[in-house]
Amino acid sequence: MATTETAKTQIDIAKIKIGVSACLLGEKVGYDGNHRHDRYLTQTLSLFVDYVPVCPEVGCGMPIPREAVRLVGDPDAPRLETRNTHEDKTQMMTDWLPGKLTALEKENLCGFIFKSKSPSSGLYRIRVYGDDGKVRKTGTGIFAKAFCDHFPRVPVEEAGRLNDPKLRENFIEKIFTLRRWRKLIDAQKSLGGLVGFHTRNKLLILSHSQDHYRQLGKLVAKGKEIIAQEGIQELFDQYEVLLLKALDLKTTTKKNINVLMHILGFFKKELTSDEKQEMLTLLDQYRQGYVPLVVPLTMINHYVRKYDKSWLKDQTYLNPHPFELKLRNYF
Question: CB neighbours (10 Å) of residue 170?
Fold first, then answer.
């Protein structure tokens, strides 16, 4: 049975709101009247997030079933047309978009998962059938593009790409970090609150980018000056932009080993020679690809508890997302 604290944490985590293409949840909204059910989303990730489903084609007034649509014309500003009858649906979609985007503002989404290969919702390499007869895989779905333009700081990903464990971990880490950031803004938009957040997330940021780690540290150090000259909102805006840019850069084995070696420095006086050697052996095995990241991290967390390292206990890097998602178990 979960402890009270664990249960409370899980309840809080479940309040994360994520937008999602409705067909991925099993809703029969596809052009053929079927769904594109993604079981990882509905059976695993759904334990920790609440979904806000969106089907732009149905939302803008297209029926179920319907003739399939595709992107046509200029790759930078394509039209949305039906495949066989060439009926232009662009205006129908663009008339619907502003109201839907405004409604989504109220949801305070921490991310959005789009349907791959969709002319309305796909993010990457969507086919655009040019007027010159050429087909280019350079498009973005009309709704997906509008969403990204309207919410540039909200993490987005395609469901198909989440099958890649590294992309999956990166996306989910971003949505949990953004949620923690927004909770800080709601509770304590102050320099002290920002310093506390930055302190807790130092190692997480470092695992993504040394450069952004330094930039964010300098920004926080100049916090009083920025607040005096431009206000607290400007300081928080600058921090949020840099934080999300850092998280866009994926972690690597080399980056993680750098952070883990940094953590080991906190145990210079405590670890026995055998414990230190055991840790170094695990790091070498991780470096060579024999064990996943979760193995050395489990040992590190053991030492953190055993030697009561309070600063490390607060580091989100050691537990950035629910253990049940197994995001650090891949090789």
Answer: 21
Residue 320's domain comprises: 253-325
Contacts of 235 (CB under 8 A, 6+ apart): 191, 194, 219, 223, 226, 227
Distance CA 221, CA 212 (A): 14
pTM exceeds 0.85, yes or no:
yes
Q: What CA–CA distance (Å, rounded) separates 152 from 157? A: 13
Q: What distance in Å separates the CA atoms of residue 8 and residue 13, rounded to the nearest whole number?
A: 9
Total domain count for the chain? 3
Report DSSP state, residue 250: P
DSSP-assigned letter for residue 88: B
Residue carrying structure tokens 């850092």: 246
Condensed to tens digits (0 to 9), the pLDDT of residues 84-116 reads 999 999 999 999 999 999 999 999 999 999 999
| CA atoms of 142 and 81, how far apart (whole Å) | 12
pLDDT given for residue 188 in this prediction: 78
Considering the domain architecture, whether residues 154 and 174 belong to the same structural domain is answered as no
Which of 217, 248, 279 is at the close of a domain? 248
The answer to whether residue 331 is domain-embedded is no
Residues 113 and 136 in one domain: yes
Mean pLDDT of the chain: 93
20's enclosing H/E stretch is strand 16-21
194: in domain: yes
How far apart, in whole angstroms, are the C-alpha atoms of residue 194 and residue 183? 12
> Considering the domain boundaries, does residue 259 fall inside one?
yes
Contact between 147 and 101 (Cβ < 8 Å): yes
Last residue of a domain, one of 191, 226, 248: 248
pLDDT tens for each residue of 18-33: 999 999 999 999 999 9
- Does one domain contain both 177 and 277? no
